[in-house]
Specification:
This protein is mostly helical. It is built from three helices and no strands.
Length: 167
């Protein structure tokens, strides 16, 4: 059960971070695909120039190599940007989740304290009521002439006391 919850939390963190990165991530991934395609075209073109090795195309081949290097550098920039935005989004998402969990824990603690206070208050009231009844019983104990009736009343009071304490 805990593993399932942990797995669900990890998946939701990853999905949330990806969603938070949003436009920047989509732009970076599309841009990197376009740059990869352009780099492949330039590489193919430079290979074609290398195979023909015509003197007037040597300058074009050098230019293609330079463009390919520039595109690779841009791809590295985009990958770094993607990594930064993704990690920042993940960090922001984790902070929001942590704050929500802390707020819920604080709320539950306050609720438990209120319940504990209410329970103590009720026990105090029950104790006072039982003390009053026992005082009344002690007062009239001598008035009972029938010992069986006295025992029944005492048992009933003890059962009531146990029932109230059990609550």
């Amino acid at each position: 059960m805990n593993r399932r919850i942990l797995f669900a939390a990890i998946v939701s963190c990853f999905a949330g971070a990806t969603a938070l990165a949003g436009d920047q991530l989509a732009f970076d991934s599309i841009g990197s695909m376009m740059l990869e395609h352009e780099a492949e075209e330039n590489h193919d073109t430079s290979d074609m120039y290398a195979s023909t090795a015509l003197p007037d195309r040597v300058a074009q081949r050098i230019q293609c190599k330079q463009e390919e290097a520039e595109l690779k550098a841009r791809m590295k920039e985009l990958e770094a940007s993607f990594t930064r935005s993704f990690s920042q989004s993940l960090k922001d998402f984790k902070m929001r989740e942590l704050k929500a969990i802390e707020a819920k824990a604080t709320e539950m603690t306050a609720h438990l304290k209120a319940l504990e206070f209410d329970r103590a208050e009720r026990l105090e009231l029950v104790s006072a009521t039982l003390a009053t009844h026992q005082a009344e019983l002690a007062k009239y104990r001598k008035a009972f002439k029938d010992r069986n009736l006295l025992r029944q009343v005492e048992r009933a009071l003890e059962q009531a006391e146990r029932a109230l304490l059990a609550e």
